[in-house]
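*Target chain*
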Amino acid sequence: MRTLTNSILRIAQFFLVLVATALLGNVRANSHNAAGSATAAINFSIFVLALSWITILYNLLAYFVSAVAIPIAGLSLDALATLFTAICAIVLSAKLTTVNCSHWGSKPSDWIAFGSADTEKRCREIQAGLVFMWFLFATFTAAFALAFRAFRQGGGSVRGPGSMSQIGV
């Protein structure tokens, strides 16, 4: 599990989560009279980022302090973070429905970017946070694949212990 690729992925995840938390946290902090569905989507994004922080900090701690490294815990956290990051990115994409934040006149009243004094700024912050969520999903997917491979090579099995013929002397 202590590979250069894994280290690079964890560091990239750290910076992606840091930037996404700053962007989407600012969207949440500047919300005034936003629609309930827009607020729910932003709150879910903050929850996913909190879960991502827990996952990244645990895996970094497990990397440097091998006494706290529990392979199934790291694998489970990676799996949950991958799943929830994908769901969050899809939800934000569906709620945003735009690539041009300058022309928002024809959007419904419950559009996710409404609810701030500056709609264009809020839209651009959500767009930027969304891009970072997709990159975070890609890094979590790669880290999960590496963790799963290391778990399987280390003798871990989801089906139970191997047969006696697999034991080397």
In short: The radius of gyration is 20 Å. Residues 152 and 160 are 11 Å apart (CA to CA).
